[in-house]
C-alpha cells in the first residue's frame, strides 16, 4: 500500500478546520469584567468553562486545553474572563503531599516582553480590588510559596519557572498546586527537551492552558509539547506519540487525520477571516491595506550590492562543491550580509566584508541552519553557525544585544540574564554543566572583525534608499489630520541605532523597544508611545516586539527588511491590526527590486502555491512556516 505524505501546510490547514465548531453556546462573564466581550469571546468562555468542568470530562481527557485563536482576536481577555467567571474550588482535604500548597491562584507564564502587558490588561479590564495580582520576576521577587499562593493571579516568565524547577527540592512555583497554569506565547516550548519546557511540564495544576496563535511552526513534532504539558495520555508519552503519529517533518495523511481527531476536543482555533452563522465576520476591524513598495538602489548602493552578490555566488559554488571548510557557515554569513546591504548596512570599501559578524537574531540562524541541515550539513557545523553568527539569549529568548556572554559549553546569553541566573545556581541554564562567572567570555559584537575596512553605518543608512523613502512617508503621515502613529520594525538593532539620529534630525520624537532593555524600560517605552501625543514613532526589534504587544495606538507599520519566515512578519503586523484598532491600517513593506529580498518573497509565494495545489484549496494559513529549503531554492535566492 502506498503511503501518501503531506506537508506541514496540510497539517496547518487541518488545524484551522478545528475552528468549525457547531452550536457553541455563549456564557456571560462575571460582572467584575469591565469590558464587553464579542460573541466569539463569549463562545470561547463557554468552551473554556466546559473544559474545566473536570466531572464532565472523560477520564482520559485533560482539564484545560489549547487556545489557538488568531493573533488579535483577544485571547488575553478571554483568559481573564475565565479567571473571573470560574468559581473557586475547595483546596482543603486533598491528597497532595504536605510539601505542596494547594491554591485557587492562576499562574500565567509568558515571555518577559509581554509580562507587563498582562498586568496592564488585568488593570484595564477588571474592576478594582477584584483580583490580587503578583508579578513574580526579578532578583527581589518573593520566593515564599505561601505568600505567592495567597494571590489570585501570579505573573511570571519562563526563566523564573526554570529557576524554580532547578532548585534543590521544590522551588516556589513548583511547591504550589495551582488552580490553573496558563502558558502564553506557548510555542516557546515547542522543543520538549529544553529546560523551559521541562520546567513548565512539572508545574502542578488542576487545569492547564496552552495559549498560542502558532502552535505548529516547523514540524508535526511541535504539537507534542502541548500534549506533554496538558498531560493528555497516551499522547504525552513520547514513544506512544511516535507510534501513533510517526517521526519526521512529513507525516502521512492517516497520521494527520488521527491527530486532528485527538485535537478536536482540546483545541479552539478561530481566525479573523472566520464568519458566524449569519455570515458576519467575528470582529469588525477597519480596512487593512498591505502595500509592497518596490524600491531601486542608488548607483552607489547597486555597486556595493553587486560586489557582495558576486562574492556570495563564489562562496555558494565552493560550498556546493565542498571545496572549502566551513563553506555553509560562510554562505549563511554571505546571505545575511547581502540582505543587510538592502538597508544600507553593508558599507564596504573593498570587495566584500561578508565574513563580518552581524547582529542577526537567533530565530533566523536557527531557521537557516535547520534548512542547511536538510542539505547535508553536519550537526556540529550547524551548532557553530548558530553560536558564532547570531547567538540569541537562551534565557530570555530575545536577540542578544551588544554584550554577549558565552559559556565553554557553547551556549550564549545576554550578560545581564546569565549574571542573574548564576546568582541562584552555578550551572549553565541550558545544559546544566557547571558554570561560574569566571568561565564566561564577555564581549561586544563588533561590526568589523578586521577582515575588511568598514565605514560607520549611520551616514550610509541616512542616505540609503529605504530610509529616504521612510522619511518621505512619515512626513506625509504627519500632514494628515488627527494623530496617526507609526511603528517601524527591523530585525537588526544596528539599523535601529542608525535610524535614531536620522529621526531626531528630522524632528521626530520616538520610542524604542529591543531585547537589550529591562522590563521596566520596555514598559515605559510602550506607555510613552501609547499615551502621549508627541511620540508618534516607535522603533521595534522584530523578534522582541513581534509577539504579544498591543500597539493599536498606531495605524501605520513599516517593515524595513524581509524576513525568511512570513509568519513572523504577520505576527508583527498584527500588533496594530487587532481588537481595539479604530483607524484604517496601512502595512508598508519596503523591498528592493531585483534583489535577494524579491527572491525571498517569491520563494514564500511558491511554497504557498505548492501547498495550495496539494490541498486543492484556495486558502491555506501560515504556509510560510514551511522552512525546508532545497538547493534549487538557494540557487534562486542568489540568481545562480
How would you describe this structure in keywords?
single chain; 640 residues; Rossmann fold; eight-stranded parallel beta sheet; 17 strands; globular; disordered N terminus; helicase; zinc ion binding; ATP binding; zinc
Structural commentary:
The chain is of the alpha/beta class and 640 residues long. Helices cover 39% and strands 14% of the residues. It has 23 helices and 17 strands. The strands form three sheets. Strands 1, 2, 3, 4, 5, 6, 7 and 8 form an eight-stranded parallel β-sheet that branches. Strands 9-17-16-13-15-14 form a six-stranded parallel β-sheet, with helices on both faces. Strands 11-10-12 form a three-stranded antiparallel β-sheet. Helix 6 (158-166) crosses helix 7 (195-201), helix 11 packs antiparallel against helix 12 and helix 22 (596-615) runs antiparallel to helix 23. It starts with 7 loop residues before the first helix and ends with a helix.
